């Protein structure tokens, strides 16, 4: 679980993964969903070596299932690769890489990922088909063109790959690291499977996303 970002698009001084969401830091909600799923055998969180926030919270609820790795890198992909190198799992182990900034993940979505990928030769990711018309911005933030949206999906996380393949893909990607794990696997010539996610599995990136995440989690508590 990459959690070593600075949250610059969120603004403010607190990295977004530690912002209060309902009654806990945002990342606690994300970790809890994975911790409570019977198919998840352990949690590895990658934080920045300079992270001064993690130790201010109580993580005892996760027991020895949670490993914190202070090996975050300059990019998300670097953080993920550093975490993979630190854990030394078996090559055939399934690894799910999930943004700490996506606290609205659900057990149902994890079930869907496992059910559709557990026998897959490559692996895959949650994603949602693009539903809006896409505009390419030009000079002065005016429309330069309207882009075809047929067959376009927005990638989410978790992204699920065998440990050996994922580590090799990220190690061999080279400069300009990928923005998601699937892109690195694609670069090796594989075609990850797109598993239908939900728009509620949003990534908290901008301030309004935090409000939306809070409303979603609050509504789930009332179900
Ligand atoms: N060097 C980095 C950058 C990002 N992340 C993590 O990757 C996830 C998705 O990245 P993003 O939403 O871009 O987070 P930030 O990089 O923190 O946000 P920003 O780009 O606005 O600074 C987040 O959980 C973030 O903590 C990471 O582990 N290491
Ligand atoms: C991995 C990801 O969430 C898939 O959409 C996205 O690429 C992360 O991008 P970010 O800029 O690192 O948040």
Notes on the protein architecture:
By secondary structure, the protein is α/β, with parallel strands linked by helices. 29% of the residues lie in helices and 21% in strands. It has a single domain, classed as Alpha-Beta Complex (Spore Coat Polysaccharide Biosynthesis Protein SpsA, Chain A). It is built from 6 helices and 10 strands; from the N terminus they run ββαββαβαββββααβα. The strands form 4 sheets. Strands 5-9-6-10 form a 4-stranded mixed beta sheet. The protein starts with 19 loop residues before the first strand and ends with a helix. The longest helix is centred in the last third of the chain and has 15 residues. Helix 2 crosses helix 4 and helix 4 packs across helix 5. Strand 1 and strand 2 form a beta hairpin. The radius of gyration is 18 Å and the shape is globular. The site of the ligand C[C@](O)(CO)[C@H](O)COP(=O)(O)O has 8 residues, from strand 9.
- Bound ligands, each once: cytidine-5'-triphosphate, the ligand C[C@](O)(CO)[C@H](O)COP(=O)(O)O
Helical content band:
25-40%
The biggest sheet, with number of strands, parallel, antiparallel or mixed sense and barrel status, is: 4 strands, mixed
* Helix segment tally: 6
Reading off the top of the CATH hierarchy, the class is best stated as Alpha Beta
Overall domain count: 1
| Percentage beta strand | 15-25%
GO molecular function: 2-C-methyl-D-erythritol 4-phosphate cytidylyltransferase activity
Pfam family, one: IspD
InterPro entries: IspD (IPR001228), IspD/TarI (IPR034683), IspD/TarI_cytidylyltransf_bact (IPR050088), ISPD_synthase_CS (IPR018294), Nucleotide-diphossugar_trans (IPR029044)
EC number: 2.7.7.60
């Amino acid at each position: 679980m990459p959690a070593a970002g600075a949250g610059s698009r969120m603004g403010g001084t607190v990295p977004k993964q530690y912002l209060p969401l309902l009654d806990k830091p945002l990342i606690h909600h994300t970790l809890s969903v994975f911790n409570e799923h019977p198919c998840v055998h352990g949690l590895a969180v990658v934080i920045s070596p300079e992270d001064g926030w993690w130790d201010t919270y109580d993580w005892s609820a996760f027991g020895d299932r949670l490993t914190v790795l202070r090996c975050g890198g300059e990019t998300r992909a670097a953080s993920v690769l550093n975490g993979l190198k630190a854990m030394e799992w078996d090559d055939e182990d399934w690894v799910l890489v999930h943004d700490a900034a996506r606290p609205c993940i659900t057990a149902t979505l994890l079930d869907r990922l496992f059910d559709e990928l557990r026998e897959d030769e490559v692996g895959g990711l949650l994603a949602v088909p693009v539903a809006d018309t896409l505009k390419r911005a030009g000079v002065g933030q005016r429309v330069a063109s309207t882009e075809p949206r047929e067959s376009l999906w927005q990638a989410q996380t978790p992204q699920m790959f065998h440990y050996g393949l994922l580590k090799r893909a990220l190690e061999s990607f080279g400069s300009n690291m990928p923005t998601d794990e699937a892109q690195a696997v694609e670069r090796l010539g594989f075609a990850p499977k797109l598993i239908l996610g939900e728009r509620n599995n949003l990534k908290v990136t901008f301030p309004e996303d935090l409000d939306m995440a809070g409303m979603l989690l609050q509504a789930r508590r009332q179900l």
